[in-house]
Amino acid sequence: MTSTPFKISVKRMSYVDHAMPVMFEATDAYIRDRKSSIYLWGIDRTAKDVISLELLKGRFLNSGDISSHARTCMVDRIMAENCYGTDNIIGKKLLINSGGSGAEYEIVGVIKTGSSVLQNIMGSYIPDFVYIPYTTMQNNIGTNNFSQIAVKITDSYDEETAGRNIIKTMERNANIKGAYSFTNMARQKENINNIIHIFSGVLTAVGIISLFVAGLGIMNVMLSAVTERTREIGIKKALGASRRIIIAEFLTEAFIMTLTGALAGIAAGILASWIGVSALGLTLVLQIDKIMEILIFSLLTGAVFGIYPAFKAASLNPVEALRR
User: Fold this and answer.
1) Which residues contact 26 (CB under 8 A, 6 or more apart)?
2) Where are the domains of the chain?
3) How far is residue 275's CA from residue 295's CA, in Å, rounded to a whole number?
4) Which letter does DSSP use for residue 157 in this model?
């Protein structure tokens, strides 16, 4: 659609709070010699008023960037942390392919977008978000037009009604029927969030059940060990081993058993993930902090379900244990 007339006509509507042009391109970017698939968005300086953008470092794109067609950009926090291990990368450069050619852009802002929840769940399967001035993107593509208008409706007006009215106005101005359509992003976001919450709830329930079953397995193995080593425990206690020593011994065994299982599970998960991403042509990104959290949680699980067998072993009467 033509840029200026349609943008102005939409902005003038009484129920429109903010409106801005939007351009989109699925492409690649190179940062620190690392290739990343990205969603490249061409936006206006009013983006923070229209879409969900939370500034973490640096600044938003401003009117100077828009008017000068500057090669500046904002990147998502997840991309910054994956590439540099920190979100403070203001002034760094990245190479973006846009319109069939590559150019270097300066990072002026690091932001947290509304996609972060989904990105945290899906990891590297969701492309990173990069934002540049829409005028720069127009230059890259070689056009004076833009494909979409993002509109924020005033709180007192119905979004569906506003969308239909905007479409009618644009069709009347262009004298073309059926050329435009609208999407209620707020409703789509709500639907996606509901799906994510359901998905997360199911995974949480499955995880809790799996942990409980695994914990019972650890407890059964340790109880069997107590039964099989009753005489051994009696000898140790007869020789002066204290309750604390017996408890520490069995808890250590539970820790080792749990750690071995966790490492085997992590190795199997990494192998399965590597096979999957290799088949899809994607890149496997390991999150070491998440792996460490899994190991720590596994050790805690072993400690919780190993306490009862350890105390049972420590409570054995040495005389009765030797008789058995």
Assistant:
1) 37, 38, 39, 40, 127
2) 3-183, 189-323
3) 23
4) S
| CA gap 144, 69 in Å, rounded | 12
Residues 6 or more apart whose Cβ sits within 8 Å of residue 209? none
pLDDT higher than 80, residue 111: yes
Please check whether residue 39 is in contact with residue 13, taking contact to mean a CB–CB distance below 8 angstroms: no
pLDDT tens track for 203-251: 888 878 887 888 888 888 888 888 888 888 888 888 888 888 888 888 8
Backbone angles phi, psi at 112, to 5 degrees: -115, 120
Average pLDDT score over the chain: 81
Q: What is the structure's pLDDT at 110? A: 92
For 281, the token pair is 């042509």
**In residues, how long is the chain?**
324
Q: Are 236 and 246 in contact (CB under 8 A)?
A: yes
CA distance 298 to 260: 10
Contact, 271 vs 284, CB < 8 A? no
What number of CA atoms fall less than 13 Å from residue 304's CA on the CB side?
Answer: 12
Structural contact between residues 86 and 73, judged by C-beta atoms closer than 8 angstroms: no
Rounded Cα distance between 183 and 159, Å, is 10
Residue 198 has a CB neighbour count (10 Å cut-off) of 10
In the chain, the percentage of residues whose pLDDT exceeds 90 is 12
* For range 50-60, the mean pLDDT: 86
